[in-house]
Design a protein that fits this description.
alpha/beta
Length: about 240
Amino acid sequence: MNIDDQLSGSTRNQPVADADWLELKAEIEREVDLVESSIQLGDQQLCWLRVGNPDVLLEKAVAANDEQAESWDPFWAATWRAAQGLDRFLAKLDLQGARVLELGCGSGQAGVGAALRGAHVICTDCVPLALKVARLNAWPVRERMQFQLLSWGRDAYLEERFSVILGSDLVYDPNLFPALEVCARKHLQRGGKWYVSEPHRHTGDRFSTWIREAGWHSLEHDVHLDDSRVPIRIFECWLPE
């Protein structure tokens, strides 16, 4: 069965519940509860699984030592508007056959959206549990997706360079800008684009100036969602030739 068959008709809103999917879901639910919701990605309405009790992750992060706390970061577990805005922006791009890297993938929204549009995606995050949930949500497009643990500035970089790099809600802390920028620079191929989304926070304003001072070209786009709230800002960044 191909992806279009899996996402059509009565299966559109249901996870692909084969034995491997169920085993992965059970493994995740030994650590956290999962709840089903509906989400629109890549012009498809999908069943989406998210953490139902993120406070458990926060408690584990607080209890962990400094080295382990990052592995229990609870913020990835939310369904962020910035990811939805980035997905809508991707509709403007030709991603068919593109090699795409997602940084800080969380539950996988932007990466799955890119895969639904024909891209081959490597999703990365510093939280092992996030990668498991992203893999679960990416099941209908699993042939086009890979998952890799990656902590900016700590782990070895991937050997591959990509024509498109994605990141949603990654610029909320200016202290992370240097490690994030180096990671993007190491992985972007010549002539490629890096797209970063965020909901017009003041930290995004700081990133707007900072990224240009770091030697990048940047354009800003607004994506309006159907919620009467502030639009999502997309930074389109690229390096000079």
